[in-house]
Design a protein that fits this description.
This protein is α+β, with helices and mostly antiparallel strands. It has helices at about 15-20, 65-70, 100-110, 120-129; strands at about 25-30, 30-35, 40-45, 55-60, 75-80, 90-95.
Length: about 130
Amino acid sequence: MKTNAKKPKVAFDFVLEELYSLEPTVKPMFGSHAVYVKDKIVLILRCRDSYEYDNGVWLATSREHHGSLKKDFPSMRTIALFGGAESAWQNLPADSEYFEEEVMKACTFILRGDLRIGKIPTRRLKKIN
């Protein structure tokens, strides 16, 4: 076991500064970093060499909110590495010219408690019930 193993750098860590007042928790997930606020996962921060098209800030949401979120985030798109079908999760792509602006807007929505962003993971739902 390595004791001096470096932790991978959190991509787009400015998000954590923006959400600081909510005391977000960051956990490694699938080579990226999941951002939780209380019991909800709200974002995944992804910047990897594989599937670069999907690099960016992933929004934890559901299909029912895609239409209204697309109005707020015109560059938002589905995550291709999930197989091409429309996924519940959506990506604010790092290759968009509006990336930082849209990510900051998403952070503002999270700070305001916007119900369109954030999901209680299934395993936590089972513990609550």
